[in-house]
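Tutorial, part two.
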Amino acid sequence: MSASIQRVGVVGGGRMGAGIAEVCARAGLGTVVCEADATAARAARDRVTASLERAVDRGKLDRTAAEDALGRLVFTGSLDDLADRHLVIEAVIENADVKTEVFAALDKIVEDPAAILATNTSSLPVMRLGMATRRADRVVGLHFFNPVPVLPLVEVVASLHTAPAAVTAVEAFAAALGKTVVRSRDRAGFVVNALLIPYLLSAVRMAESGFASAADLDAGMELGCAHPMGPLKLADLIGLDTVASIAESLYEEFKEPLYAPPPLLQRMVQAGLLGRKTGRGFHVYAGTGGTHASVIP
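Running the prediction step on this input gives:
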């Protein structure tokens, strides 16, 4: 692990934040996870604990290592507890205003002027978040992929202000977590989502028009193209609200029709049909198990 990054903070203890905190703790780093309040902080701890238990059950991690990792984690409801961190990774809701508020607050709280403030945003401009601080040269995009303990990729995104030393430091940090790094310019969607989201939106449009059913669209890409998961199952896994949010960011930046969220996607988000996390999206899910029916016939 880079000598400059030994104490890590994570803002947001949801699925992504909990995963980031887990891999940091498993790599031997003291990690503080900040949530909105004490209740949410306890839920974040439960999330990480459950993930570590799954890793033990599957033989990916031994019991002692899991207990040691959990012992390196502190869960809090106060941003002030991140004051001494060398690196703070923001992983809150994909909303520009919310993220900007977090960065403005962290800028005042994190004491070390050399500390790096990173965002796990999947689509928003890193520059906007950096300009909410007085240390834009120390703000960088550090985009992990879900599930964080499993997927090996991290996108590193530098804004026009980000110092090369900050980029080098977070690349070394990610590599020490066992991740493979790809660099991207500060453009909406970065590398992966700029390619992925138009593909997912095309599948939504095909289902919306009656071109094919959700089940057949997914089967076609899984069995005909060897994709591990069809596009609408993947959209359900990501969360349809997140897919729509990323699409809106891409369309706002590029103004190209392929990035515009289709009406069906927008209506499903309005209806609260967000995919796996709500039990229903383009497919219906039984508990945490697999698909048993399609919403779009």
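The chain has a mean pLDDT of 94. In part three we will examine how such features are distributed along the chain.
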